[in-house]
Structures are given as C-alpha cells and as structure tokens.
Amino acid sequence: MCAALLHIVSDLARSSTTFVEGIILLKVTSIPATRADGVSTLVVCSIIAVGASAAILAWLREVYHYVTAQKPEGALRPHTHAPPRRRAVALRAGEFVPVGAVRAGEVTRVESYGCFVKLDDGGASGLVHVSELSHERARPEDVVAVGQPVLVKVLAPREPGRTSFSLKAVDQRTGAASAPPKRARKPAATTKVSLDDCVVSYSRASGAGGQNVNKVSTKAELRFSVDDSKLPPAVRAQLRATHAARFPFPSLIHSNPVSSLIDSELKE
Known about the structure:
InterPro entries: NA-bd_OB-fold, S1_domain. The chain has 268 residues and is mainly β. It is built from three helices and 15 strands.
C-alpha cells in the first residue's frame, strides 16, 4: 500500500472535528502500527487525491488541510482531504509562512531563469523567477548577485513541491508593497498633410437667371489627391483602403454647400 508521511504544523479547531494543516514529507510503502512521534501521521494516497498514487512525489513539501479523527488507540488518522484554505511554505517543525508574507533572505544562486533565495529566519529556499525580479525587463545577473540580501514575498508555488518568491513585489528599502511604475504614454505617430497637396474650389449661384440677388448659394470643395501627394507609399495605401467607401470620389475630402442671406452678418 502506498502512503505518505504527513507532518502536522498547525491545528485548526472546527467545532467537534479537528482540522490540521500538514506538509507531505516523504513517500512510504508500509504503514507502521504506531506513530513515530506526536506530530506526524501517515496518509493513504487515495485520501490525498483521487486517481493514481504515482504523483505523490510531486506533492512533497506541499501544504494541505485535513479533517482528522481519533482512532480507539489514540492515533491520529486523516480520513478526509479538505480543500486548502491557505497555502503556506514550511520553515521548520511547527512554523510556516503564509502566502503573501514578506521575509528577508539572501541570494544563493543566479541562473538564466531567475535566482534562488534562502530565507534568514527558517532556512527555507525558493525560486524567484525572472518575471518576478523586476518590473522592467532585465537579466537576472543585472538585478541580483550571489550573497546579496533581499526582501521577498512568498507566492503560491508554480509547481507542486516548489517554493516561489517575488522580488519585484517588495520595496527593497522599506519592505512595503511595490507597485509597477506608471509609464507615460507616447503620442501616436502622425503624418501631416501639406496644404500644397490640397485644392479648394468655390461655386456660387444667385438664383435662376441671376434673380434674387439677396440670396446666395455657395458650394465649397476640398480635394486632396492621394496618389499625387508626398505621403509615404504605406500611408497612401492605407488611405485608399480605409476611405475608399467613405468619399464619393477618390480625391474629395469635404464638400459643404452653404446658403445664406447677404444682409445677415455671415461669419465663416
């Protein structure tokens, strides 16, 4: 029978049932009659997760919550696996650091994919992935060095059994949460159209046969020849593709017929 050794790190009282938080320490192949000490117990693999038990090696150092019951001889026997209420990283027997905690540590190794940090207060080591080193894109060797003291934030593990930290989430001077800097938006690149490439035309009419001279109709048109302009070829192609259905003629940009009375104060 395949089983795992569960180390109890915290008792969580829930009414008449005892909830405990424990760490999967190692894989065992036989179940002894009694426990070796008062803080460890054995868990049958089928209780930890549904399915094959071969994945138990991936659960090592992971923290889970279990519902426990007392056997007649007094041995603690987990019989139900409850969903994790709080992920944690074990430091030593009876102590753990919850996800989100900030701890001091030292860089022990630098790799191309990040760096490894060992915590000062408990000896636990974990990976700071390259994406968690800095808010800016940078190589690990440009951010940290071996032996450098750092402040890290405990993250949920990327993989079962792996401890993960974040360096960029903590202000290295104050220990407070560090937010990514706000980046100023660059204005979008624009291409200006020269007035020399535009042609403005007017046409006026005073009514049929020149009658009704107090009423004037004015039509103004602004034309811009895309093909004859000095714009880059890519811009000309985009204009033709974007505005082909918008304008009735290839070069017509704006047409504005205006009718007004001469004796009124027309301001255009």
